[in-house]
Amino acid sequence: MDSLANKVEMYEGVNCYLWKTIIHPINLRKGAFYPIEKFLFKRYIDHPSPVLVEWIQNADVVVFESGIAPIFFDLVRRLNPQAKTIYLASDDLDTINVASYVKDTFARVGPKMDALCLTSRMLADRMPSLENCYVIPHGFDYSVEDHADPSPYGPGLHAVSVGSMLFDPSFFVIASAMFPEVTFHIIGSGTGAEPGYGKNVVVHEEMPHQATLPYIKHATMGIAPYRSSEVPRYLSDTSMKLMQYDFFRLPAVCPVGIAGDYPSRFGYIPSDADSIGQAIRAALVAPRIAPKRTPLRWSEVMERLLAPDTFADTKLTDFTV
User: Fold this and answer.
1) 233 vs 24, 91, 224, 238, CA distance in Å?
2) Which of 78, 112, 138 is the last residue of a domain?
3) Is the pLDDT of residue 290 over 80?
4) E strands in the chain
């Protein structure tokens, strides 16, 4: 990655720039270190990359992704006051544990942005302003249907889990013992087989996204084994694995906190064997039903992100919990 740092690279028609500095500000966590944290961030802001400066000056729209990006709002306003400023709330800042300086800055500049675009309505209570909030869910690539055959499975019941985010291996220790007739497929969890896994657990190495699609489409049920103590409620709308399960009409098992109002999802309490058993039994006999919400295509997401106030379906009031 060092070989790609600090130079503009073209990737699939998009100019990309990996900005690497000798000193990078971080979350120092303890309040006593806040003055040091603030100093590091201000130094970082006061010495922007020339490429960043040039791109800001030439931009019509500047999108700030959730993370440290809001710290550059004042720079954008100074260099290009006519640029439209859009904040994309993919995550809550507390959930991704950003530095206090970033959170303080976002609280100050968020109300000044043209739009705060939320990937889930459940992020609204974490925004510094509601007047400029819009809901624009994640998009979906419908072409996945073209790459989801044939089935990789043999006879029998098959459950699949894809991805490593907040992965909870204890789910499979419990589930594999309770349901020996089900083969549990774990793809790309970032961990190997656990000692407590039954013989009916198959651990696959990480594979290209396209290769995972047949495992999802042809499974009996999907699993989103998130760790309970770290699961934000908005994942019910933003979890990409749950979106894929919904698209393929796959009954899914997930922590009860993110089952949401999706009828195809069956919630359990992590580490609670009884609730895990109930959720799996319900999913195994559940019919494949159409998704509750039809996902937007990514092109439709981009249209709404650039001009959220021109679409009727982005209003926060239409997404009341």
Assistant:
1) 31, 11, 13, 9
2) 138
3) yes
4) 8-11, 14-17, 61-65, 84-89, 115-118, 133-135, 139-140, 157-162, 182-187, 201-204, 221-223, 252-255, 265-268, 296-297
pLDDT in the model for residue 293: 83
- Output the six-digit token pair for 270: 């992590």
Active site residues: 91
**Partners of 297 in beta bridges:** 140
Q: For residues 258 and 238, state if they share a domain.
A: yes
Please write the tens of the pLDDT for every residue from 258-268: 998 899 999 99
Q: Treating both helix axes as pointing N-terminal to C-terminal, what angle do 170-178 and 273-285 enclose, rounded to 10 degrees? A: 60
Q: Which token pair is 3?
A: 């070989």
In this structure, the answer to whether residues 38 and 127 fall within a common structural domain is: yes
Distances (CA, A) of 244 to 55, 285, 314: 35, 19, 22
What is the Rg, in whole angstroms, of the alpha carbon atoms belonging to the chain?
22
Q: 133 and 121 share a domain?
A: yes
Same domain, 201 and 221: yes
Question: What are the tens digits of pLDDT across the range 31-60?
Answer: 888 899 999 999 999 999 999 999 999 999
Whether 171 and 276 map to the same domain: the answer is yes
Domain boundary among 113, 138, 163: 138
Domain count, the chain: 2
pLDDT of residue 30: 82
- My answer on whether 205 and 130 are in the same domain is no
pTM value?
0.89
Residue pLDDT, tens place only, 206-262: 999 999 999 999 999 999 999 986 789 999 999 999 999 999 999 999 999 999 889
Q: Same structural domain for residues 128 and 149?
A: no
- Residues 120, 162, single domain; the answer is no
